[in-house]
Amino acid sequence: MTATVAEPPAFARIAGAQPSQEDLHDFLYGEARLLDEGRYDEWLALFTPDAHYWMPLDWGQTDPRLVTSLLYEDMFMLRLRVERLRGARTFSQKPKSRCHHVLSRPFVDLMDHEANLYRTVTPMHYVETRLDDQFLLAVTARHDLTVAEGALRIRLKRVDIVNCDAAFGNIQLLP
Amino acid sequence: MTAATITRRYTGNPAGVAALIRPAEVHRDVYTDPEIFELEMRHLFANTWVWVGHDSQCPRPGDYITTQIGSQPVLMVRHSDGQIHVLHNRCPHKGTKIAIDAAGNTGKFFRCPYHAWSFRTDGCLLAIPLRKGYEGTGLEGSEAAQGLKPVGAVHNYRGFVFARLAPRGIGFEDYFGAALSSLDNMVDRSPEGRLEVAGPPLRYLHRCNWKMLVENQTDTCHPMVAHESSAGTAVRIWESMEKPPGMPKPMAMEVIAPFASPYEFFETMGIRVWPNGHGHTGVHRSIHSDYSAVPGYWEAMVAAHGEDRARAILGENRHNTVYFPNCMIKGPIQLLRLFKPLAADRTLVESWIFRLVGAPDMLLERTAMYNRLINAPTSMVGHDDLEMYERAQEGLMSDGLQWVNVQRLLSEDEAEDVEAVENGTTERQMRNQFAAWRKFMLMSMEQGQ
């Protein structure tokens, strides 16, 4: 809503004028670590103000708007999600969930310096746990990244769950 | 544990089942007991009219979907003459399910993948390979020769297909009566009087009894408590944000903020109960009343219906309408939830959305947003609801207390099975559902079936 861009974590900074493949890899691993460690304010600072986090419901879904998705959240909704996780009366997070990401080597599908657009595709295993329950999601995360003020930022993070059409219980944290 | 070692307390014991429902409380066995669950599948889900699907899921002949009515696997299919049929999804030969994908087109006939028996799309047996092997065996007198068995009765009401498993019982109109006004309002919101399913449903697994979800649809004393963490936080963030004066609320805020409304809002919104367990919240207004107008929609409605009729349709903002036993619709945002019972402590919730044919896309955009913000396994609102159901399912295992209380705003002379309008925080609709539960459970138990 407000256009203020918060200071991003060090791993998001790029060394040269344009990001290298290593910069992109460092960014993706750094992002996953922030989620695993619950460092959500730093995580929110990785996004551009007009960014979205999208988790489709249907396999190969192309439209986030006119059919249901699991998530299609702008920065207002992501901030709400983060604030809620911290809330004193967030009963489904008493006790809290924890999560764990295992990334395989990200593909860099697009390196377009002119358009300032970098697209990566990262297969990963996501584990979430609470109380005695633990579940595994096999997902593919696609990031559309851009450079702003010397750091990489996320414009769109799309997370496709391999069994997106299965019935799930609560998925409370974020792959 | 084998079946032989289970003490059968309720089978063949209608008086025992009836005693589980008191005017102000219900026994915990209705939520926890596997035998009660079995009896619900055999009696309640056979005697009532259950939502199967929407006919826009099967637009062409041969289109089918697979689903369940209670525990019964069924197919809904459109026959060559345009009629919708609902058939047991079970080959009459060896029992193989005829189709297992959520939806598809079977062409002119179904063909069992095991032995290639084939059936017309109205269920009739079409052909058996090597048929001469049955000559002189009397096959034509067998159940198998009858083809795919139809359910007891099917009714397509303005695109919404309901079925009754039992071959005899209450008729569709008698069962729903005035409660159909909520479905009418939802369909009338289309300038063409027609809805279409938009995409696949959310599928959310709940480790709790299905009735907890149905009760929650008219539980107006939980949002400000259980959803404070999501809706209350949304309101606080919005109010603390720096923004230009008069900036309109984003669509997501319009959807989520009303969940934080105070008790007074819910008290004055009203609850209406109808016979046979149906009822709705939001008689006078609801959490859906204050959405922003969508450009072009009013004009399309006036062109289709005239100004007075358009105003009457859009002035009705019912919140949740429960179609007993396991369906809920939200007319103002064209959403339907089906609570599919899997076991005494397991329920699959499907949340479907619909396009208003002839209306601007922005309405469907809001509906899709509502569905993911409120009904998804990833929903901040859904998380806290599920947490409460699962805690209740576990808490009910305590032997310290045996009864669940449904007493709020109970009056001494409260009549069962009638239409009435009450204060919006009453638990009368929950009592209404349990009265219907007893009625449709006992309907066939007392006949010794």
Based on secondary structure, the structural category of chain B is alpha+beta
Put simply, the count of helices of chain B is 15
Decide which structural class fits the backbone of chain A.
alpha+beta
Any idea what the shape of chain B is? globular
Number of beta-strand segments of chain B: 21
- First-to-last CA distance of chain B: 25 Å
**Integer-rounded radius of gyration of chain A:** 16 Å
| Most extensive chain interface and residues per partner | A-B, 35 and 49 residues
Which spans of chain B of ≥5 residues are poorly predicted at pLDDT below 50?
none
Name the CATH architecture of chain A.
Roll
Structural descriptors:
heterodimer, A: 175 residues, alpha+beta, Nuclear Transport Factor 2, Chain: A, seven-stranded mixed beta sheet, 3 helices, 39% strand, B: Rieske Iron-sulfur Protein, Naphthalene 1,2-dioxygenase Alpha Subunit, Chain A, domain 1, 15 helices, 21 strands, 31% helix
Structure, described:
The complex is a heterodimer of chains A (175) and B (449). Chain A is of the alpha+beta class and 175 residues long. Chain A has a single domain, classed as Roll (Nuclear Transport Factor 2, Chain: A), CATH 3.10.450.50. In chain A, 19% of the residues lie in helices and 39% in strands. In chain A, strands 1, 2, 3, 4, 5, 6 and 7 form a 7-stranded mixed sheet that branches. In chain A, a hairpin with a 4-residue loop joins strand 4 (107-112) and strand 5 (117-130). The radius of gyration of chain A is 16 Å and the shape is globular. Chain B is of the alpha+beta class. Helices cover 31% and strands 21% of the residues of chain B. Chain B contains 15 helices and 21 strands. In chain B, a hairpin with a 3-residue loop joins strand 16 (321-323) and strand 17 (327-330). In chain B, helix 3 (34-47) packs across helix 15 and helix 11 (297-305) crosses helix 12 (307-315). Chain B starts with 13 loop residues before the first helix and ends with a helix. The mean pLDDT of chain B is 96. The A-B interface holds A 1-2, 55, 57-58, 65-72, 74, 76-77, 79-81, 83-84, 87, 89-93, 165-172 and B 102, 198-207, 226, 228-230, 232-234, 236-237, 241-243, 250, 252-253, 256, 348, 351, 353, 355, 361, 364-365, 368-369, 371-373, 376-378, 380, 382-384, 386-388.
